[in-house]
Amino acid sequence: MSLQFCGPTQIYLQGKAVLQPIDWQNDDFITYFLGDEQSRITITDHRPFVNRQAQFAIQGMGQADFLNVFCQPALVTIDSDGQETNVVIEDTDDFVAKEPILWMGVLEDNLLPANPLTWLHFEETKDHRIAFVGLVDSFNQRGFEQR
Q1: Pairing of β 41-45 and β 85-90
Q2: pLDDT tens-digit readout, 80-122
Q3: Looking at the 3D structure of the chain, how many domains does it have?
Q4: Per the CB 3.0–4.6 Å rule, which of 11, 24, 33, 88 could disulfide with 20?
């Protein structure tokens, strides 16, 4: 694995059924596949408040609340070897508006909006959708809609 990025970001999720929880029994973190296991993109979230909200969402309560809480500034580390990509998310107090955006999602019709990206990785899911994770330059880039 090689380090692709480490620093504070805003998080933005796009698409339906973007996060597939695979390890949520631990109090310290929750791990997700982006899309599904075939994408080989994992996200490990160490933010306690977000993980409490995720527990409610997994039990079928408060899914809209979870998305709003998940899409908050965070310290992000991305490692990738071209086959697998691991995203680690932690709390941060060091966010400023010019930080990049961690943009993750699943494409439904293979259409990706044109945003100024510094890094992008695609993987196919088992139902032939495309999972993606990328870094957008910053909030100040024209054309990117913030949640």
Answers
A1: parallel
A2: 998 899 999 999 987 776 788 899 988 766 666 566 678 888 8
A3: 1
A4: 33
